[in-house]
Amino acid sequence: MAKATSLLLLLLICIGxxxxxxxxxxxxxxxxxxxxxxxVAPRNVDVWLPPGYSPxxxxxxxxxxxxxxxxxxxxxxxxxxxxVDETMTNxxxxxxxxxxxxxxxxxxxxxRHADYFPQKPFLSLPTAQQDSIYKATRGEGYVLxxxxxxxDAYLKFLVTELKPFIDxxxxxxxxRANTFIAGSSMGGLISMYAICEYPxxxxxxxxxxxxxxxxxxxxxxxxPGAFISYLQKHLPDPSSHKIYFDxxxxxxxxxxxxxxxQADAVMQVKGYTATNWLSKEFTGEDHSENAWxxxxxxxxxxxxxx
Length: 306
Known about the structure:
- Helix 9 links the parallel strand 7 and strand 8 (277-282).
- An eight-stranded mixed beta sheet has the order 1-2-4-3-5-6-7-8, sandwiched between helices.
- The protein has a single domain (2-304), classed as 3-Layer(aba) Sandwich (Rossmann fold), CATH 3.40.50.
- The protein is built from eleven helices and eight strands.
- The protein is α/β, with parallel strands linked by helices.
């Protein structure tokens, strides 16, 4: 079984490396095919440059997970997209946000859960609970974890390999105040984890439809408690960081409210206020790229406002 999983992973990586490049409606997309890493599997990186991008200007950088879902619905598995290029361009034209590029980091399919599941909270759980979590599935025959949790390695890839590459090859500001990270669902979890683990690197994080359960069951699930406990100990300084959370009320998002309220309580205790923290509920919205597209301007304005 392990051999079959390895072969499937290799196949997915090979397919992903030669996947059709998204088409953007505004700006320009630069594809870095199969970016190699010493920590995680190689993956594509699609860098969006705004209209009028110039080497004479320094830009902020927004790193986004699930990079294959950001720009072009004609090449995504579910024919949905975030509409990042349209939303960013609209905000930039209206001079609502600072100059910024977007680095869309692909997931590698079967390794997504292992890459995005916050590792230190996971390891804080008893071994028996860890073993049970590794057996979790989503639907019949779909195993969530193709490998042990390796989000610490994924973040090392982002911080020590990808960021230096972006800093060297694009005209960007490299400081914390101009470096942001964002994602949805498991991408929301890893964005939260990133700003906690690397507070000197990331100045802001946007966590949309944060998947607090970690798996797809909530009964007797120790995972949300582990995440909340981690936040209590590791939230970065509110005077120098911004954090955005949200959730819908339909579909998978309907599970999130009680856990988000617990996280919100921790944020308040830790000194976060409306100037550096936003948590929003979107009634009727579900767990989809279409939903995230409809509200993307809100976290972008919050993080990147001039």
